[in-house]
Design a protein that fits this description.
Oligomer: single chain
Structural class: mainly alpha
Distance between the termini: 13 Å
Number of strands: 0
Shape: elongated
Strand content: under 5%
Order of helices and strands: HH
Length: 66
């Protein structure tokens, strides 16, 4: 499905591949995640989850399959 939103210049093929790798660490990053107002970083896995949530949001916004 095509998106009517144009990809920004920073969203290169290399960036897309990195986002997919970040998402692979947490395939469903929002499952079991605390609400944003309660979210506190508590180590490396939380940073990986935050990266996966960002990847999910970007890939979904621009309709990039993952």
């Amino acid at each position: 499905m095509e998106s009517n939103i144009q990809k920004p210049l920073w969203l290169t093929n290399e960036t897309i591949e990195q986002l997919k790798k970040d998402l692979a660490a947490f395939p469903n990053p929002y499952e079991g995640a605390p609400p944003e107002e309660d979210f506190e970083f508590d180590g490396f896995s939380d940073i990986k989850r935050e990266n996966a949530q960002f990847a999910w949001d970007v890939l979904t916004k621009y309709n990039i399959p993952f």
